[in-house]
Design a protein that fits this description.
This protein has 314 residues and is an alpha/beta fold. It is 39% helix and 12% strand. α7 packs across α11.
């Protein structure tokens, strides 16, 4: 049974640097996917500032090189490098895993795409599910041995308030029988991110690995690149009309990721969902804040793991 609801001294306006103030990560190794911009680069920056050895894994290697240089310019002692990783391409994931050596203490599954036009991965999978969930699932499985070697590794799964748009539709994950809807596909993939943390926490507890998921909040970033002007305006109007909504800076958006990745306050905590640097309250109907019950459902989490494993093996 889950213990008491976890609250911290931090909140929606806290920044990544504030969450890690006084935390020392010397000798710890971290991977942050999708860290060339947005909350990803700020997550990597704060980990570097805490003296972790950080690898930013990105699809666009040129953007990754620029991001690493930006971090090095702002963190004098930064141990940072960039490497190529295309989460939609399982060969790229396998190559990344094969090249990794030694333990891995922190894995931040941060990369994501949102509301894309209907697209298929090389395996024929719906592209958002393939990138946001299956790519990270394959990466995490491939790095499991390295995580276990760390003896206390943490996995951070970046979900979204968009998970409230759809549970995982197991009967038609890849929109082969139903009309494709970009936001439903996005919501399903973000629910999958949350369910992954639930099941990983259960399966890998004996390896000393903890996994948690989070909603970072709304941040204006490259994530919205697939939205046209009309859709973006509609989304912003909907958000701005919510009484409990406020835009965050990338530094604020990265704060909850840092809490899960390295804060002593999360020692031994696993299988939970966070937002605004605190454990998320249950969702209320019609809200995109808090966490839906289906995103923490242990049966769905176990089913998703088996289904995902079968997809990777097909």
């Amino acid at each position: 049974m889950k213990s008491t609801h976890l609250l911290t001294p931090f909140g929606s306006e806290s920044t990544a640097a504030e969450v890690l103030r006084g935390v020392g990560l010397h000798g710890r190794r971290a991977i942050v996917t999708g860290a060339s911009s947005g909350i990803g680069i700020e997550t990597a920056r704060a980990l570097c500032a805490a003296r972790a050895d950080v690898v930013i894994a990105v699809r666009d290697i040129e953007a990754g090189v620029h991001a690493a240089a930006d971090i090095a310019a702002t963190v004098s002692h930064a141990s940072i490098r960039s490497t190529q990783l295309d989460l939609a391409d399982l060969a790229s994931v396998a190559a990344f895993v094969e090249a990794w050596r030694g333990p891995l203490h922190i894995l931040v599954n941060n990369a994501g795409i949102m509301a894309t036009p209907e697209t298929r991965s090389p395996r024929g999978w719906e592209f958002q599910f393939a990138t946001n969930h299956l790519g990270h699932f394959a990466l995490s499985l491939g790095l499991h041995r390295a995580l276990a070697k760390a003896e206390g590794a943490r996995i951070v799964s970046v979900s979204s308030g968009g998970h409230s748009l759809s549970r995982v539709v197991f009967d038609d994950i890849h929109f082969r029988a139903r009309p494709y809807q970009p936001w439903l596909a996005y919501g399903q993939s973000k629910t999958a991110n949350a369910l992954f943390a639930v099941e990983a926490a259960q399966r890998w507890a004996d390896d000393g690995i903890t996994a948690n998921a989070l909603m970072p909040g709304a941040i204006r970033s490259n994530l919205q690149r697939h939205l046209d002007a009309v859709e973006l305006a509609r989304m912003e109007a909907r958000m701005n009309g919510s009484a409990d909504f406020a835009w965050k800076t990338p530094e604020q958006g990265a704060a909850t990721s840092e809490l899960l990745a390295a804060s002593p306050l999360l020692e031994g905590v696993a299988g939970r969902h966070f937002e605004d640097c605190n454990e998320a309250e249950p969702n209320v109907q019609g809200s995109r804040r808090r966490v839906a019950d289906y995103a923490l459902d242990t049966e769905d989490a176990a089913r998703l793991w088996e289904v995902s494993t079968a997809m990777l093996a097909s």
